[in-house]
Design brief:
This protein is of the alpha+beta class. The chain has two domains: 7-12 and 67-131, no CATH class; 14-63. Helices cover 38% and strands 29% of the residues. Strand 5 and strand 6 (96-103) form a beta hairpin.
């Protein structure tokens, strides 16, 4: 086992959950407000049901993304007992980061970490760990 460089207990992101619900409600409102040809009028209800099911599915997935995430000194990520290797450099935005990871079996996983997934101090430490060059250490 490698020494852990960074670790944190992730929690469900409130901003991602709010964005999911907001976008779903906007799409549903647009769907209901648009005039559809008479021959397609029957299809509004199934499309609305599919839209709401997708919102619920995304909400469930967001709530499931909780637990301990760790980064070791060799650059491996540990999530739910599985070791993952970064496939490319992390893509940073002001309020989130996209990690593209691959495990030893070849399974690929994209993980969006929002700034409210973890405490502010952990967010800053994660940014520092990802931007430091190999061989450098945190003060």
């Amino acid at each position: 086992m490698n020494a852990v460089r960074w670790q944190c207990d992730l929690r469900a992101s409130r901003s991602a959950r709010a964005l999911n619900v907001t976008l779903s409600l906007l799409c549903a409102g647009l769907l209901l407000a648009l005039e559809w040809p008479d021959v397609w009028a029957w299809s509004k209800a199934p499309v609305l049901v599919l839209l709401l099911a997708e919102c619920w599915r995304n909400e469930r997935r967001l709530v499931q993304r909780v637990g301990r995430l760790a980064l070791d000194v060799k650059g491996n990520w540990l999530w739910r007992g599985v070791r993952w290797r970064a496939e490319r450099r992390a893509d940073w935005l002001p309020y989130g980061v996209l990690l593209v990871l691959r495990n030893q079996q070849g399974k690929r996983w994209r993980l969006w970490l929002m700034h409210d997934n973890l405490p502010p101090g952990e967010w800053r430490t994660l940014r520092a760990c990802c931007f430091l060059r190999d061989g450098q250490t945190l003060p």
